[in-house]
Amino acid sequence: MTKSLSSLKVVSYTKRHVPNDYPDGDLPWQVYHTVRNALVHTCRRFGPVGPMGAAKIVPGFESAYHAFVADPSVWEPGDSDPMYFILDDQLNHERYCYAELYGDNPFSADWLFAVSETLREFDGWGLGVSNIPYSYVIVFGTRILVSGRLAGCRSAAEVITTAGRLLKRRNRKWWQFWK
Predict the structure, then answer these.
(1) Could you give the CA distance from residue 119 to residue 108 in angstroms, rounded to a whole number?
(2) Mean pLDDT on 43-49
(3) What's CA 52's distance to the chain center, in Å?
(4) Measured between alpha carbons, how far is 17 from 50 in angstroms, rounded to an integer?
(5) Which of the chain's ends, N or C, has fewer CB atoms near its CB within 10 Å?
(6) Would you list the DSSP string of 109-132?
(7) First to last CA, the chain
(8) Residue that wins the pLDDT comparison between 77 and 5
(9) Considering its fold, how many domains does the chain have in total?
């Protein structure tokens, strides 16, 4: 069990895509949304979450969307003005959820530690954070994969500091700072 952020291993990677195949083939939507629900609950401790909240896991439906059409109460609405945008679409059959972070200091030490603790309950699952300018982060239970401007980070503390700075900066170019 990881006791602190210092025990999270930071690994720089250069691949465009890090494969994380579901070992049994097609990943059932119920499995995906079980993990997503756990991440929604974790992120809600740190700020509003959207676009959708947690989904009830209903057997017998082909997808969460079919269940939602049959009963709209299956999916709770997201919070207004989400700080943690946890993608509700299951994009593939890999063990990833995807997020974008907004607002003041969303990539905090407490948040990162809580997310890694949550993901330790789901073997092989990761959370990809896609809106850190010129960078990408995938958080797992015991490690953090980093690329782009975060590739030089050697510790979780460095990742937090650099990601926070980049998120505040957004995608502005060097010449836009003088406007």
Answers:
(1) 17
(2) 97
(3) 14
(4) 25
(5) C
(6) HHHHHHHHHHHHTSTT-EEEE--S
(7) 48
(8) 77
(9) 1
Say how far apart CA 140 and CA 25 lie, in whole Å.
21
For range 103-119, the mean pLDDT: 96
The verdict on residue 136 lying in a domain is: yes
> Rounded to two decimals, what is the model's pTM?
0.88
Is 178 inside a domain boundary?
no
**pLDDT per residue over 139-155, tens digit each?**
999 999 999 999 999 99
- Rounded alpha-carbon distances, angstroms, from residue 49 to 92, 112, 115, 121: 22, 15, 14, 21
d(CA 42, CA 60): 27
* Distances 9 to 112, 167, 172 between C-alpha atoms, Å: 13, 22, 30
Task: Specify the range with the lowest mean pLDDT, choosing from 41-45, 69-73, 99-103, 123-127.
Answer: 69-73
For residue 48, the one-letter residue type is P
Residue 113 domain-assigned (yes or no): yes
Q: Which three-class secondary structure state does DSSP give residue 12? A: strand
Domain span at residue 18 reads 5-170
The answer to the question of residue 68 being in a domain is: yes
**Residue range 111-128: mean pLDDT, rounded:** 96
Counting Cβ atoms within 10 Å, is residue 171 exposed (0-12), middle (13-18) or buried (19+)? exposed
